[in-house]
User: Fold these one by one.
Assistant:
Number 1:
Amino acid sequence: MDTRKTTILFRLALTSILCTSLFVSCQQDKELDDKTRTALIEKGKQISASLSGALLTKLSSEIQANGTVEAIKYCSVNALPLTDSIAKLEKVKISRVSHKNRNPANAANEEEMALIKNYIAQIEKGAATAPVITTGKGKYTYYAPVVIAMPTCLKCHGKPDTDIDAEVLNALKTLYPEDQATGFAMGELRGLFKIEFDDKR
Ligand code: HEC
């Protein structure tokens, strides 16, 4: 190969490296300033409070009216029409994730596992827990701890031998053959509430 060709090739290689690094740096997230963080935390708290309230009301009234087996489908944020309307209005994606998930779609990823471990450690120490905002993949994500805070939760997430009725256990096994979400006790971390904000605000 003559020197001219080598020089052109070298320049091409250099240009493509430069372009790639420029592209990569543009993809990285800008720093999250305090004002934006506070606003996102507030919005996240608002959304999760209204959804948790609606979920609890639905779950409790269904257990009372038709029994725990019938209520099984109501412990899903996706079962709430409110979830869709909030998601559309606020341009967010709402879900829950867990280290011991019931629905396979709710398994925590590696980053979420780290958050969960941290929350568990805080709870064990008796320290207060607070929501966090993470950045990455061009979006902001709100996470808040979900704790087993009332005995009702144990009807479906407690100890299989003592807390969960046999017929409920059977129904859960049929619907969720890979269920890991039993054996919880009061005060334990059940998972994370997750809100993905799809626009940079
Ligand atoms: C009537 C049974 C029942 C009760 C009571 C119940 N859950 Fe659930 N829970 C379920 C089912 C079923 C799922 C899976 C929902 C789905 O498919 O998305 C679930 C899923 C969850 C998840 C999502 C993560 C995962 O494992 O899939 C969280 C978090 C959760 N429950 C917390 C609670 C809390 C907190 C309470 C008490 C306020 C509670 N649940 C009460 C049946 C119940």
Number 2:
Amino acid sequence: MGFFKKMVQPIVNNAKGKAGERKVNSKLNPLIFDATYNKTINNLMLVDRYGNSHQIDHVEIRSNGIFCIETKNYAGIIYGDEEREKWVQVLGNLKHEHNNPIRQNKSHIRQLERVLGPSYKVNSLVVMVQNNADKIDVPYVVNLDDLKHYLAHYDDGTKYNRKEIDGIYETLKAAASRTVSSREHVKSIKENQKKIDKGICPRCNGKLVLRNGRNGEFYGCSNYPNCKFTVNK
Ligand SMILES: [Zn+2]
């Protein structure tokens, strides 16, 4: 297919992505949904059991469901479907390919469902910020202008009350803060190791000296007995 041959590397435009998230965020503003109780989490970061982090643009929790929202701020004409690995962006004479956001969102949803447990269903929603979803024939890929309508009218029989919505929100927020603290933990372990490698005590910044113990040699802090830090040789 000649169409695919001309493709160049995907453009990663972070600033543009952030602007798109802000636009969606303004559409998700609770004021717009004054009749419906809802909670929105922006930029939810979760780490899976393999240590990979998943950054989720928006999670919208409403009486009619939980929505995992991926925003795409692409210009031009976008071609894509559910299965194809890449989506194609046509900008004048140029074609770019991007990872299929539906697939990306699936892995995000798996993380949300892992945190929430099997009794909660998380719905996928991809929002095209530049309102160019018309060539993508997937019901849950919507234009930004249709987002409000889509959320308001979505109905798969789910009904959450205020208490459940708050519970889901708190559970996800707690998982995210565990993620942050586990990352900080890993970071501090790495920083400690760097100091140790340089012969510096990570606890008091004293010098590490080689000592002889019952079980052989080890490194201990030169400020012993005030600092009892030791590390195996
Ligand atoms: Zn020390």
